Amino acid sequence: MQVRVSPLAGVFGVGAVLIGVAAALLGGGPGGLQEGIAEALTVAAAALLHELGHVAAAWGWGIPVKALRLDLFGARMELCGLVPYRAELAVAAGGPLVSLLAASLALPLGRIWEGAYLFAAVSLGLGALNLLPVKGMDGGRMLFCLLAMLFGERAADVTLRAATGLALGGLWLLSVYALLRVGEALSLFAFALCLLLRLLSP
Q: Which of 28, 75, 109, 120 has the greatest CB tally within 10 Å of its CB?
């Protein structure tokens, strides 16, 4: 299996690390830097475990994984050959399932290690957000495969487009409402924007 990293994702990742290091040094000194590195590694571990859930599901169905492409909006797997909808549904569900399972297992460990709470929160967020019925995300692919098996590809495509529009519209409205009422919804606003860009990307 090949692992490919897009140039834009590499530049963004390096920039994020540099900004985080600078903020940690200016705010908390060496202690803040160590805490920032630990948090970054925890988030990276949760994201890696999510992708390994997809890979494990593919291997479980006997589907070779050709490549894993890391771009600005996450990871995309390239599978070898034609994949039945049932198998593709299982592969798409593998990531969120592993993330939700990891969150449930890590949460009780928070009493021993505080980083477990962050790991559980990130894993829970990854699992839940990827279940959104949005084209280009796990939930969207699961919905498409399920509907394609039941009603055909055309009906699945139309339904997925409608679900994507409703989900993105709802996120935008929620982010604007929270921004006006609370003043702290930039992360939700940025997430909705990333979903839109991923949808429009080739």
A: 120
